[in-house]
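Students often ask why we bother encoding 3D structure as a string. The short answer is that it lets us treat folding as translation between two languages. Here is a chain of 154 residues written in the first language.
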Amino acid sequence: MKKVLLTFGLLAFIAGGINAQVATTPSPEAKVQNPNAATMVFESEVVDYGTIEQGADGVREFKFTNTGKEPLIISNARGSCGCTVPTWPKEPIKPGESSVIKVKYDTKRLGAINKSVTITSNASTPTKVVRIKGKIIAPQTSPVKETSGAPTEK
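And here it is in the second language, the structure alphabet:
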């Protein structure tokens, strides 16, 4: 009985391995790309905030142009965390036209910034990752003017 169960187990394991290999083989249709597809070309794929003070304006822009032959449609843009919120154009960007993706970073957080924004579109490269970086420091405060601590006599 043990030999029968072992044989069935071995056959199931082999069948599963063969099935996994067949499933990972790419189909010939997957290699075909649309030569007229939209293409998203950024002026810069990294926006450097530099060193800014806590609470400063955290909005920056990624400028891009559709250099393809079809309209570019951005379906989603997602920040790597809740502190990075992108806003993207909802209307199609025609070939040759430019637009921007705005990114708002929560500047209440102190320290280094190194976040990403993942953009999903119908472009020839459907997923694109752009980055923001910089450093947020505590605001500079002016020294408090000290007054004489001695009580005045009358």
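Translate back mentally: The beta strands are 40-42, 46-53, 59-66, 74-79, 84-87, 98-105, 111-121, 127-137. Keep this in mind for the problem set.
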